[in-house]
Design goal:
alpha+beta; 192 residues; Aminopeptidase
Length: 192
């Protein structure tokens, strides 16, 4: 289910999140059509109606979807979810930077870190998970730099278009978050 009225999530630097709204659907369709995004999202929503169904209609598990804002404009999407409504001790993350002009500026790692800070320091989860395709080396590098550790490879874990793909399962535990947070501070300066 999409849960309504989630407050914005503010990062300490230039990245913040606000919940996806109807007005964001054209941007989502455009971002999902970008070749770099499409390479790892298979057959993403390619119409406003498909984007509405994917991003605004009820889902099978609790999921909160946000537009990533950088320097005052939307540049991508990030979400967190629980596999079951009562499984709030663990949260999964999905993310993409859809605006090509925002890539290569550290927006992705900053967004992941902002989400991790929210999950560990406000939601008090025990574990954060992410499962990029094994061929998505750029994303895997970002997630590991943010503190995620490799748990293993899940063979044929996703169906992207007409092909099955392997994904890497990465996690970060609550007792590992302080070191990941310290690395963030070392790289970017104080975070409040």
């Amino acid at each position: 289910m999409n849960l309504e009225h989630h407050p914005p999530i503010r990062g300490p630097h230039e990245v913040s999140f606000r919940q996806v709204e109807e007005r964001d659907l054209p941007d989502l369709v455009r971002w999902l059509a970008d070749p770099e995004v499409r390479a790892f999202f298979g057959d993403p929503a390619d119409t406003i109606e498909a984007a509405r169904k994917e991003y605004l209609d009820p889902d099978t598990c609790p999921v909160w979807r946000f537009v990533i804002e950088w320097r005052g404009r939307g540049v991508g999407e990030i979400q967190y979810y629980h596999h079951e409504a009562d499984e709030t001790w663990s949260a999964g993350i999905d993310i993409f930077i859809g605006d090509p002009d925002a890539r290569g500026h550290g927006v992705g790692i900053e967004a992941v870190r902002v989400m991790l800070r929210f999950l560990f320091e406000e939601k008090h989860v025990h574990r954060a998970l992410i499962d990029p395709e094994t061929g998505n080396a750029r994303a895997i590098h970002v997630y590991q730099r943010a503190g995620f550790k490799l748990d293993g490879v899940l063979r044929h874990n996703a169906l992207e278009g007409a092909r099955y793909v392997d994904t890497q399962y990465l996690s970060l535990l609550e007792d590992e978050w302080p070191a990941a947070r310290a690395q963030w501070i070392e790289e970017r300066g104080p975070i409040h």
